[in-house]
Every structure is written in structure tokens, then in C-alpha cells.
Amino acid sequence: MRKKFFLGICILLGINTIAYSLNNNKQTIEIKKVAQGPKIDGILDDDIWVNAPVAKDFIQFEPYNGYAPSLPTEVKILYDNHAIYFGAIMYDNHPDSIIKDLGVRDDYTSLNSDLFTVYINTFNDGVNASEFMVSASGIQSDVKHNGNSEDRNWDAVWESKVNITEKGWMVEMMIPYSALRFSQKENQTWGVHFMRHIRRYREWSSWNFIDNQIQGKINQMGEMSGIKDIEPPLRLSVTPYVSAYLEKNDEIDKWGNNFNAGMDLKWGINQSFTLDMILIPDFGQVQSDDEILNISPYEVQYDEKRQFFTEGTELFSKGNIFYSRRIGGKPKNAYDVYDHLDSNQVVASNPLETNLINATKISGRTKGGLGIGFFNAMTGAVEAEIKDTISEEVSHYRTQGFTNYNMIVLDQTLKNNSFISLANTNVLHAEENYNANVTATEFRIMNKENSYQIAGSGAVSQHYTDSTTLGHKYNIEVAKISGRFMFELQHFIESDTYDPNDMGYIQQNNEATWDAEFQYNIKEPFWRLLEWNNEISFYYTSLYKPREYSSFNINARIHATFRNHLSVGFYGEVKPFKRYDFFEPRVDGWKLELPRNMYFQSWISTDYRKKFAIDLSGDYWKSMDDNQWGYDYSIQPRVRMNDKWILVYGVSFENNFNTYGYVDNYADNTGNDVIVMGNRDRTTLVNTFNSSYIFSNKASLSFRMRHYWSRVEYTDFHQLLSDGALSPSIGYDSYSTSENLNYNAFTIDMKYLWRFAPGSELSLVWKNAIYTNDNNLVNSFVDNLENTFAASQINSISLKILYYLDYQYLMKN
User: Fold this and answer.
1) In 478, 588, 691, 710, which residue has its Cα 20 to 30 A from 435's Cα atom?
2) Which DSSP state fits 107?
3) Distance CA 30, CA 52 (A)
4) Selection from 499, 592, 620, 606 nearest residue 562 by Cα
5) SS (H, E, C) 683-705
């Protein structure tokens, strides 16, 4: 036993020694320039490939970090004045075992297929990179990387072809310079990663060794040299679109139609900077939001799904002060109209979105590593319509005037994959004499070994109307980011007047947090495990002003993946002391006392390579001081019918009992605030069904249906006391059932997509939406569903065609 233990220790030490040696020997390759690139057909039989430099001798990244891969890979590289070319040969002794299921472009995280991917860092700064991925079934994916963040919505126009042979599979890729940004240096060295995924083994390997004990891949790249005298052509493209809609709202009871046209223009100002402009945008085919019943004091943050605002925006994430949903979102004074009604007036219509006129982005990076970004958008005025119920006269109330949005970003890369950034946003409501300005900075300083870092951020918000309001925030962090043992110490402050929400998003301000996180992770396979991750963290939170205690949490997380690729996890959270919520009362200076509680969660995920896989999770929480408690569970089975068709069904059920929440507030006879809180039980059931059928690597049909049902039943009411406690019951009849809520959101999104040429597509979309919200509780799921289907609904059928026109292609032909 002792000999075996000693042998195991020696093996682990040997692996770590080899890993250190590999990590300190960066792979380099000198590539050649050709007059004209190869034909992209996936065969690699062009003469120019014969003498092309070859990258080989890959090393496993996972599951056995630092070991030789199961199968060899070779990559050839060439370039000309138009593009850079990659020809990869993935050798395989059993080509009939290559997994090559079809999927949707960019959905690589759930694609069941072998993969080959190229990361290119044209500035070789260890921070930024563009990733181009191709599956064995020919499906493309591309991702923009910036530090630890990813932009999966970025879509470049590039070419690739795949060919399955008796020796394995091959892929040819052409990445035009229009998809890259690089400096104007005469001689350049670019960072590069080549990675291969063998799906049946769940194995990733890379040309340059990636040490899994060091965070990040971009900071562990190899290098391509020999890039010189590039004379890139003019980068200019336009993507005009036309769209047509048929829409029916049951409340109007007739079909309407409209037609739209506009374009997206991209111009390469030089090799490094690109202008991207959208004129008369149309986002009518964007997937429906997963709306929820929000009874919290905080605004819900929804994901951005509009392509212009999701692709190529990595620079604009600096400082965390840009929330693109503000642009074209809800009018600033949407609800003020209800405060300006006479007794005989009603609101006939009140648009919930402003009209986006156009938007422009300019971004790039200089040869000195300075990233520069500029963003501008303009929205038109919006008015609500007021109708007099007696005279039938119609008047208007402006809920938001013309608005101008601007952002400027400077991001300087530094040595050792470090950076420092400065960002500014400005929102101008000229008609209202209102200007909101936020300036932020962000930095990361890493040591030479990339094992420790100091990071931080800070921001100042300014609101100008008749007076000026200033606010600030800052965050400082010290962390060890490599090795088995890692830690992070952090302090975070948001002042009570900090407000970036004109163009950014925060749930709340007036907060001070101290936290410490410790991790111990084993990435090398041992026993029956491929990896084992452990984390424990401590959080202390208070108000910024006044410095009153809010909460203290202790959290622990364990995650393990077995050799059969079954993943399991556990999360626990304990709040051992009473807490105070200063925001739920909705009145400044008040607080709600919350009991001690504990929360536990566990989950399990099976192997997605199988025809049938399932994800399971369950949560339970319990108050230590009273009878508040709750639980939830979710089940998500997925069935792969064949290599083209997949079905995924998800159901989640959540019950919370006897929780406290805000109901009402008013002034009593003496002018003092009276805040009413309620005991409530809440049940939420969510069903989702997703299906996609892939006709080819260019055409697909997707279907998504979601039904969200949440009911809130109040059981008692109390007056909030000045110390945060609740008074004895003030009587259920005081508010009766008028505070109960029964909310439904039912949506369908069905889309046929045909990418008929690079960058060009045709999409046919059907969208259906039903939303109900009332005070009449329904206990039966079937009865509730019947009531939902009986409510008014909105149907939309739309056809949209985009056609990508590249200046160089037009000149050539």
C-alpha cells in the first residue's frame, strides 16, 4: 500500500514537472506568404499545400492534461494579401466512428460532433482573440474573446469545407482579413491556438500546451511569425435586408401587415479599426424574452438578443456600465401618464419600447495595444395616447423625447496579459434638460507566471438636471489564479447616490461587501474521477450609508466529473445570523428583519454523447427561526432522435411558504409612514420544450415553447415596525384577496433559417405570445392553462431576407 501511495505521489509530481516544462516552452511556427490562396474544398490537394509549414505534436488539454493525445493532428498554414488559410488533418484509425451530428451555427456547446478550432490573437497580447471552429459535420462557430469574457454572438464571414476520408477527416478554412483586426506593423507575430476535440473520447488536445492549473487559454498561446508585407484590400460590406410581417392582436381582432427595409454597413477604416452601422433596424424576429412575475424591488435584467448589440461589443463591456437593452427599451416616463389623467380619461395606448433610429460602432486596436471603441445610438420620441370617455377626444402625453446614447472606451493591454481601461457613457434627453454621465475604469495586473493578479474597477455617475447628483463605486481584488489551491479576496463599494441605470444596469446601490473565496481543485484524473473542484466562500454585506449590517453568508460548493462523464454537484449556503433587507420596504430609512436560514442544492448531469441524457437538480431551504421554508426541482431530459433531430423538455417547480413581502405604504394621520408587509406562499411552474431539425449545415428548423405560471397567495398582513420586526396580524380582511396574483406567460418561437450564401440568410418566423395577470387564483394546472389559452394573444408571421455584399467580391466578379 505504501509503495502504491509513493508511486502515485511520484506520478503526480512528474506530471506537474512536465506540465511546467511544457508551459515554459512556447510553440512557434513561421508561416509562408503565397500569391494566391488554395481552393477551399476540404481536400488539401493544391500544390501550394505541399511545402506549407506544419504544426503537429499536439498535447492533451483534457481529460489527461499534459499527456499525448489519442490520435495525431497536423495543421498547415498559409497567407496572402486577402486572407489566412488553415488546412487541418485529423487522423483517425476508425473514420466510421467520427461523431458528426448536425447542429445550428454557433451552438457548439451542445453540438455532438468532433471539432477543430483556431484561436487567433493578432496583437499577441494574451488577452484578446478571435476563435473559428468547424465541426466534422461542417457546422461553423465563431467567438470573440476578451480576457475572461466571451462574445458568442459575434458572426464573421469566412469559409470552410470538411471532408471525411479513410484516414480521418480534413478541414480547410479561409479567414479573410475583413474578419480580423491587426496592426500596421511591417513584420508581425500573432498568437495562435489549434485545438481538436474527439467527441467519442471527450478529449481536447492543443498544439501549444494549455496548463489547466492556470486560468485561461488566450494567455497560453503559441505564436505564428513570418507575417509581413500584408496589403489588405478595402474592407467594405453592406448587408441590406427586407422584411414583411403579418400580425394579429386578438384585442383588435384583425390581421395587420407592414414592410421594412434597412441595412447594416461595415467599413474597415484601416487594418485595425472597423465602423459598423445599422440603419432603420428591424428586430421583430428576435426570440421572446423569458418574462417572469417580478414582485421584488429590483428591475429584471433580460438577456440581449438583438444581433447588432451582441456581436463585436467586447470592448463595450469594460467598466460594466453598458446595458444595451436600455436602447430601444421602455420609455423613461412610461408610467407617468397614469398620474396625469382626469376622472373621465383612460390610456388608449402606451408604447413599451422606444423607436431606434440608427446605431453606430467604431472599434479597433492600435499597434501599441490600445483598444479604442465608440458607440452611438439615437431613439425617436414616444407618446402615449389618452382618450376622453365622454367626448371621445384623443390627446397625447410624451413618455420620452428624442434621446442620444454615447459610449467611448480606451483599453490598453500591458505586459503579462494585464490591461487597464477607461470608459464613459453619456445619455442626453435634450427636451427634458437631463444628462446622465458615467465614467469608469477597470484594470488587471498579473505577475509574469500568471499565477497572481490584482484587479479592480471604479466608476463615477453624474446626473445633470436643475442640480447635479454624484455617485461612485469601486472594487478591489487580490487573487491567486493558478495551481490546485486558489483564493480571492475582494472589497466592493457602491455609494447611495451611484446610478448608472440610464445606460447601464445595477439592481441596487448603497452597498458595501467584503468577501473571501478559497478553492482547491484537482484537474488530474484519479480514482474514478476526471476532476474534482471545491470552493468555500464568506460574504459580509452592509449598507454604504449609514454603515448598517445587512447579512453574512457562508457558501460551499463541490463539483465532480466521473470517468463516464457523469457530473454531480452540491452547493450549500448558511446565513447564521439575522439579516436586514433595506430595499424590500420600498421606503428609504426602513428595513425588514429576516431570519437565519440555510439553503442546499444538488444536481446531476449525464453524458450528452448518449442518445438519451438528463439533467436533474433539487433545492431546499429552511428558516432557523420560524416556519419559512421552500423547495424546488428541475428535470430536463434530452433525446437525440438521430444526427439531425434533437428534443429537449424542461420542467421546473418551485414552492416557497410563509415568506415576507411588501404590500403597501401610506401616511397616517400624523404624517408618519405606515408600511404593510404580507405573509405569502408562492408557487411557480415552468415548462419549456425545444426542438431543432437540421436539414443541412446551411438550413435548420427550430421550435421553442415556454409556459411560465406563477401564483402568489397572501395569508396574513402586518405593519412593519421601525426596528425591522413585524407587528402582530392587522387582519386578513384588511387587504383580503386583492393582493393575490396569478400570472402566465406563454410564448412560441418557431424559425426556419436558410444560410444560402456566406453572411446571407432567409428566415421565416412564427411568434405567439399570451400574457395574463390578475388577482383570481387558480389551483388546477389544466384550468389555468385553459384560461390562458382563452385570453387574448398576439400572433406574428414574418419573412426576412439579408444579403451580404462584399466590395472585393463584387469587384472581382
Assistant:
1) 588
2) -
3) 10
4) 606
5) EEEEEEEEEEEECCCCEEEEEEE
Give the number of other CB atoms < 10 A from CB of residue 790: 10
pLDDT of residue 423: 97
- The reported pLDDT for the residue numbered 211 is 93
Q: Rounded to whole angstroms, what are the CA distances from 631 to 358, 680, 698?
A: 46, 15, 43
Mean per-residue pLDDT, 578-586: 96
> Is residue 493 over pLDDT 80?
yes
What is the number of residues in the chain?
Answer: 813
Give Cα 553 to chain centroid, integer Å. Answer: 26
Q: How confident is the model at residue 813 (pLDDT cuts 50, 70, 90)?
A: low
The residue among 207, 206, 205, 133 whose CA lies nearest residue 173 is 133
For 167, the 3-state DSSP assignment is coil
Whole-number Å distance between alpha carbons of 118 and 105: 16
Cis peptide bond N-terminal to 546, omega within 30: yes
* Whole-angstrom distance, CA of residue 422 vs CA of residue 437: 14
CA distance 425 to 407: 4
Q: Which of 667-671, 706-710, 726-730 has the highest mean pLDDT?
A: 706-710
Beta-carbon contacts of 300 under 8 Å, excluding residues fewer than 6 positions away, are 292, 294
What band does 18 get if pLDDT is binned at 50, 70 and 90?
A: very low
Residue 350: pLDDT band (50, 70, 90) is confident
Q: Which helix (H) or strand (E) holds 555?
A: strand 549-562
Instruction: Give the closest residue to 326 by CA, choosing from 433, 407, 441.
Output: 407
Measure the CA–CA gap between 439 and 321, rounded to whole angstroms. 8
How much is the mean pLDDT over the chain?
91
Backbone angles phi, psi at 315, to 5 degrees: -65, -35
- As given in the structure block, the three cell numbers for residue 601 are 442544492
Q: What residues contact residue 641 under an 8 Å CB cut-off, 6+ apart? A: 647
C-alpha cell at 629: 421554508
